[in-house]
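# nightly structure sweep
# worker-07 picked up a monomer target from the shared queue
# config: single-sequence mode, recycle default, output format = structure tokens
# input follows
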Amino acid sequence: MRQTPSVLYIAVDALIPLRGSSLHGLDQFTAALDHKGVPAVWLTSRSRLQFDDPRRKHGHTHPFIAEDGCAVYLPEDYFHLRPASEASRTKEAATLRRGRFTCIPVAQALPAAAEALQTLSQDTGAPVVTLRSLSPRELVQNTGLSQREAELARQRDFDEIFFFAGASADQVQKFLTEGRNRNLQFRQHGVLWSTAIGPSVQRSIRALAKLYDRALRYHAHTVGIATPDLSANLLPFCERTILLTGRKSGGDSQHQPDTPHMRHLPLHDPDLWERLMAAIPTGN
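# output follows
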């Protein structure tokens, strides 16, 4: 691994949308980071299988954090070290093999969340429908994705995707409150929700930072990059942060987390990638 003063953590779901084109210039930015030897860890709410095509298309060869902080996925032979996760304190394996990746689990693997979801639904009286239970036709209708993309969306390693079926606002609130009391965490994605037991972006970053520091033999600063809608889930856990604002000039956002050392860059600036590269300590 090449010497670098920084490791980037980039929330990419807004940059690589499920539908439509990726933000122009992302390919070149990824290539420029690789040329300078700066690792870029991608953070997504999507599953490992959903993320295969975007990673291949944009030439991403570094680790990624999937399913909203449920796990870290390491490409084969990326680190010549044995990762250590908090799961090692239990009887579970410290790492898992998932497809082509070594996986550091942070949340409990399925079916834990699926079973807890059904029990919670029964106990609170809030009817839910999981994507896993739908027919292929129903799956496409409820996700708005192509059949292939929809199938990938419901094949998860840790979290369970669901929606409420005719539940009242009071039922939904009771469901969410009781679920959090049971250590379930929820994320809303439009009409769809995801739930997992014990996910944590902070712990995911901590596990990766330790691996990078061991490989480099010194501490590389964590630099978080996110749009306002995804910033609260990432930027508070990084030492330096860059907020990609939706305005033509940088400014405060109602979604902006309270983090030190934050820079603002306009997302749709024609010179975004050049300015972003200049804002990242590269050591070169």
